[in-house]
Amino acid sequence: MRGLRGFVTVVCSLLLAAVLGACSSDNSQDEKSSIKLAEVTRSIFYAPQYVALENGFFEEEGLSVDLTTTWGGDKTMTSLVSGSSDIALVGSETSIYVHSQGANDPVINFAQLTQKDGTFLVSKKAHDNFSWDDLRDSNFLGQRKGGMPQMVGEFVLKQNGIDPHQDLNLSQNVDFGNIPGAFQSGDYEYVQLFEPTASKFEKQGVGHVLASFGEASGKVPYTVFMAKQSFLNDNPETAEKFTRAIFKAQKWVENHSSEEVAEVIQPYFEDTDSDIIADSVERYKDSGAYALNPVLDREEWNNLKDIMDEAGELPEDIKHDTLVNTEIAEKIMNE
To answer: Signal peptide span per the entry (predicted)?
Structure first.
């Protein structure tokens, strides 16, 4: 449970450092038109969100969305709990971690954006006939303990008969932002990478994409829009408008080519070539990573808990109805 303890420790520390006024701010604004949105990182994995922003889907709903990248699940949840943001885009496991600490105002998952893990297995060497068994005794650069990438990675490896802590030389001491550079310069043979880094490495000849962890692990509520229960109670129409805009974007991404998606979201990735963005979007489409609608169903929630439990990071068995609101998304879909 070190991952959970570390997460809680960081969140508590950041909350103590936050402005006390933010913690006691009044969340009862009537149907607010301005939304402060915090995303856990900047990623092509979140393409539908950027499509909603760039195509004016939020504006069509009368919403002005101010997007901030908070760089990390602990910082994102601190922003949400302290009132610095109204809605957060982050992994559902964080809502479970916060709830397990006895939050008086629970964080509720209300609109799902991605439905599978967004990482890919990348190797320094090409493999003509890759088998998960090839990873045995290799130097593997992993992700942060307690985070969804690492938990899904371990789940997939175990499903393929590999104990990541016994059968690999597993390293987890590199910060998220430094993982690509460490893999490139170090003696690691394999790594878990998000896009567009995986496609960039492949194009540069630095690495070779071998498998999708998302395809191998099945559907989970990997990245979800969430808000405090008080915000959803006080701003029901705003939550519906927000979800409606996201659903429009999900359908737009599904019905347009990867090149068209890349053109729309290019402003969010100015340092990345459009062909790399398109390749990344195509990989996510092929793996079924983008959710086709905002409903977080019970089966996905239970799959998430199984993955957390397998990793030893599930603090308690929290039911779907406790931290998930599907009524908003279902209402939007039935309009």
So the answer is: 1-24
